[in-house]
């Protein structure tokens, strides 16, 4: 017999799933979050949260914690492999937004959201150690089958709505779209790490660097706690063209839907050996990076529809995208806010989910494509003269920003 859980069952306690639980609670709707991991730990590296998503988190009462934890990014600085400036653009409040763009450690943000969910919804609102094994829609609701540790059969959980926020290898997505588009590699391998340094530029700048082989480096500080000590916790990403494409699943060695593999400084150094920034020692950055992760850059072709009936998708389960535009987590947060608004506005959950998808699927589809376009444009410009690179970057970033901001504006 099924165990009643809540109005809404959310599979996945990542940033999107936890934000959805908070947004639903704020509108008086009960939610339970089901998480496959036995323990939720602050994993990952740095991410960016864009102003529109920060506005939603601030409305949920997290503005102060975000300011205490993340870095309010002021500028994106585009440079070549010798550190010469090609283009720069203001970000967040400096660009006229009412809210900042925050660079933050993914694990810090997830733990912040988790603490808020447990404080507001109760300790039992997040059930760990249970992996969604399947679901069935029945009259008036959804029955979800759960597997515990070692594949042991768990309880059937019953809810009015099931939301798949279970990431890149979503079980909910697989149930809805067993023949859906596979992961698609962008022909790029990525290495990521975190390094504690004595400082980094003005402490609020993100650099985007590239050389004539289309190797790219993105780096930015992510910790206000470090900044208060006069340090910088630098998140860095090195992107290298891989003609073979790589394994788009990454093998999932962690068993948690992550496509990461362990990497090392020796993997990255050959790609940056000819780089020489006057204001950043790249060898020192790599040497101080305790854990380096390697994974392919992937996305999926957008789905023609996300959900069916009382089941829908959110975040990477719905629309995985290249990290080129720093929008993945932000779009998951915007999904969560839109989902809660529609469920609160409509008594019929099927109607609410249809309206949620109508609002969010076109927006995220456009951003998936915009990320692909930006990636191609950045790689195509590498052998042009610097003046052409500057003109290209100005056009590409302006076009991308217009696409995202138009899609992130309600109505």
Quick one: biggest sheet?
A: 8 strands, mixed
Low-confidence stretches: 250-258
Strand order in the sheet with the most strands = 6-5-13-14-15-12-17-16
Rounded mean pLDDT is: 92
Rg is: 21 Å
Specify the overall morphology.
globular
Strand content of the residues, in percent? 25-35%
Q: How many runs of DSSP E, i.e. beta strands? A: 18
Ends apart, CA distance between termini:
43 Å
What is the count of helical runs? 11
- Helix-strand category: alpha/beta
Order of helices and strands: EHEEHHEEEEHEEEEHEEEHEEHHEEHHH
Written account of the structure:
With 411 residues, this protein is of the alpha/beta class. The protein contains 11 helices and 18 strands. The strands form 3 sheets. The chain has an 8-stranded mixed β-sheet with strand order 6-5-13-14-15-12-17-16. The chain is globular and about 65 Å long. Mean pLDDT is 92; it is low at 250-258.
Quick structural gist:
It is built from 11 helices and 18 strands. It has helices at residues 15-26, 51-59, 63-69, 106-121, 171-176, 224-228, 265-272, 282-287, 328-345, 349-380, 386-407, and strands spanning 3-11, 31-34, 46-49, 71-73, 75-80, 85-90, 101-105, 126-127, 131-138, 141-147, 153-164, 183-197, 205-210, 216-221, 232-241, 261-263, 289-300, 311-313. The radius of gyration is 21 Å and the shape is globular.
């Amino acid at each position: 017999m099924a165990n009643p859980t809540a109005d809404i069952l959310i599979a996945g306690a990542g940033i999107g799933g936890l934000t959805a639980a908070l947004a639903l609670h704020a509108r008086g709707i009960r939610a339970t979050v089901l998480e496959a991991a036995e323990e939720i730990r602050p994993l990952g590296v740095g991410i960016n949260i864009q102003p529109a998503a920060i506005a939603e988190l601030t409305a949920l009462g997290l503005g102060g914690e975000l300011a205490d934890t993340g870095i309010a990014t002021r500028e994106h600085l585009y440079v070549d492999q010798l550190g010469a400036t090609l283009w720069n653009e203001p970000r967040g409040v400096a660009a006229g937004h009412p809210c900042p763009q925050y660079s933050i450690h993914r694990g810090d943000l997830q733990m912040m959201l988790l603490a808020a969910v447990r404080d507001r919804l109760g300790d039992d609102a997040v059930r760990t150690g249970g992996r969604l094994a399947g679901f069935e829609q029945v009259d008036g609701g959804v029955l979800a089958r759960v597997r515990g540790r070692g594949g042991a059969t768990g309880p059937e959980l019953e809810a009015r709505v099931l939301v798949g926020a279970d990431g890149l290898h979503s079980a909910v997505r697989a149930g809805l779209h067993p023949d859906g588009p596979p992961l698609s590699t962008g022909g790029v391998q990525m290495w990521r790490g975190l390094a504690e340094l004595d400082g980094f530029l003005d402490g609020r700048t993100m650099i985007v660097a590239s050389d004539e082989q289309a190797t790219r480096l993105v780096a930015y500080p992510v910790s206000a706690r470090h900044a208060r000590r006069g340090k910088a916790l630098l998140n860095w990403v090195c992107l290298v063209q891989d003609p073979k494409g790589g394994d788009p699943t990454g093998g999932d060695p962690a068993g948690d839907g992550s496509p990461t593999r362990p990497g090392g400084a020796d993997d990255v150094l050959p790609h940056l050996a000819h780089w020489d920034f006057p204001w950043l020692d790249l060898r020192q950055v790599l040497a101080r990076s305790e854990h380096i992760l390697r994974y392919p850059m992937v996305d999926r072709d957008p789905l023609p529809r996300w959900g069916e009936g009382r089941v829908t998708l959110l975040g990477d389960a719905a629309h995985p995208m290249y990290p080129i535009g720093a929008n993945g987590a932000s779009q998951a947060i915007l999904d969560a806010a839109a989902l809660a608004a529609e469920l609160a506005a409509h008594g019929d959950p099927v109607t609410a989910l249809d309206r949620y998808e109508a609002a969010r699927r076109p927006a995220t589809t456009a951003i998936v494509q915009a990320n692909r376009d930006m990636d191609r444009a950045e790689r195509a410009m590498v052998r042009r003269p610097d003046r052409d690179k500057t003109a290209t970057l100005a056009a590409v970033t302006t076009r991308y920003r217009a696409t995202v901001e138009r899609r992130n504006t309600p109505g």
